[in-house]
Amino acid sequence: MAFVFDIRTQLANMTQDWIELRTGEKISLSRTRTFKGTRAQRNSELTDKIDLNKAPENYAPYTFNLSDKFKIMAQDELREDDDMRDNALKQFREWIAKHPLIRKCRTDAPFLLRFLRTKKFSIPAATEMFEKYLTIRQVYPHWFFKLDINDPDLEAIIDSGYLFPLPERDEQGRKIIFSNAGKFDTSRFTSAQLIKIHSMVLEALQDEEESQISGYIHVTDDSELNIGFLGIWSFTDIRNLAHCVQNSLPMRQKENHFVNLPSFANKLSEFILSVLSEKLRNRVFVHRGWDELKTKINPKLLPKEYGGTVPVAECVALFKKQLKERRDVVLALDEMEIEINKSTIPWADSTDADIASGVIGSFRKLEVD
């Protein structure tokens, strides 16, 4: 069941004002760990001016400031070097400027590099993903718009500990996103809100260049997953979600681990796996217990309650601070715009082939000088 959200959707929604954690524990953010890197500096640079002009007179300069570890990884896995990156950004921006349907979008380097790095600097593949990303956001605004941490519902879901990144990266530099499926209150929240929450979390993280290069790992605790989780989904939801997410999320998904998945979710899990590409299926691991998971992931990286060092409450507080810092950047995405002819593109009833023949890919071959 959790496969829908963690493997492809990563999209969602949350609730309730938060003053202290639901455990009753109050967290002083001044004493807690901070996420590694220069996140505050990056946030400041982006929020000073979030430019959605598709063809600005000048583009902000870009400098690769990551450690040699990530520089070597980018070269080995993505074919990325200074010349490749500069040329790709130039071509990408020229393509956007000429695109007749794109009205407004971000063109800064961190944003465009999400797509270029996911597609290993293939311009045709990156631009196709970019088109689809812009389009699905507009076709399904109830999933992808208003990803606001100040929304009481979204905030409550975050506070519950349902979904959050872990503070430390693994030995390969990958960001670990942790989920406790049992914390999602199915009597209170909908599948649309669940998708929104995953969307908000990912949009808050995806400008981190370390993750663009090294990728993500998802770990889901399914031990408290209840059958009500199945009831919030319709087959239409699942079908549309599969259609819109496939090849539209700019992230390097490296591994997906599901622990203690209950038997009642097996059939749905099998269905979801059946519609995934072989590449994604090979990155899904189902574990019968935490000891089994810990043979794949360093247990010290997990929350303290699962054998690590940082309590869930502190992980949530740290990430919530990051969501607040990134709020303006995430909300600005709602102003991006691509023209869609809904009379000729019946998205809600489309198949993957319909999507591929619609606006997605229509201008994949726009010439670039």
In short:
The protein has about 375 residues and is of the alpha/beta class.
Describe this structure in words.
There is one protein chain. The chain is α/β, with parallel strands linked by helices and 369 residues long. Helix content is 44%, strand content 9%. The chain contains 17 helices and eight strands. It has helices at residues 3-9, 39-48, 68-78, 82-98, 109-118, 123-139, 141-144, 152-159, 191-205, 209-214, 228-231, 235-245, 266-274, 278-281, 290-293, 312-332, 352-357; strands at residues 11-12, 102-104, 163-165, 175-180, 216-221, 253-259, 284-287, 337-338. The strands form two sheets. The chain has a five-stranded mixed β-sheet. A two-stranded antiparallel sheet has the order 2-8.
Helix content: 40-55%
Give the number of helices: 17
* Poorly predicted segments: 1-37, 343-348, 350-365
Shape label:
globular
Per-chain topology:
Blueprint lengths: L2 H7 L1 E2 L26 H10 L19 H11 L3 H17 L3 E3 L4 H10 L4 H17 L1 H4 L7 H8 L3 E3 L9 E6 L10 H15 L3 H6 L1 E6 L6 H4 L3 H11 L7 E7 L6 H9 L3 H4 L2 E4 L2 H4 L18 H21 L4 E2 L13 H6 L12
Parallel strand pairs: 4-5, 5-6, 6-7
Antiparallel strand pairs: 2-8, 3-4
Helix pairs in contact: 2-16, 4-5, 5-6, 9-16
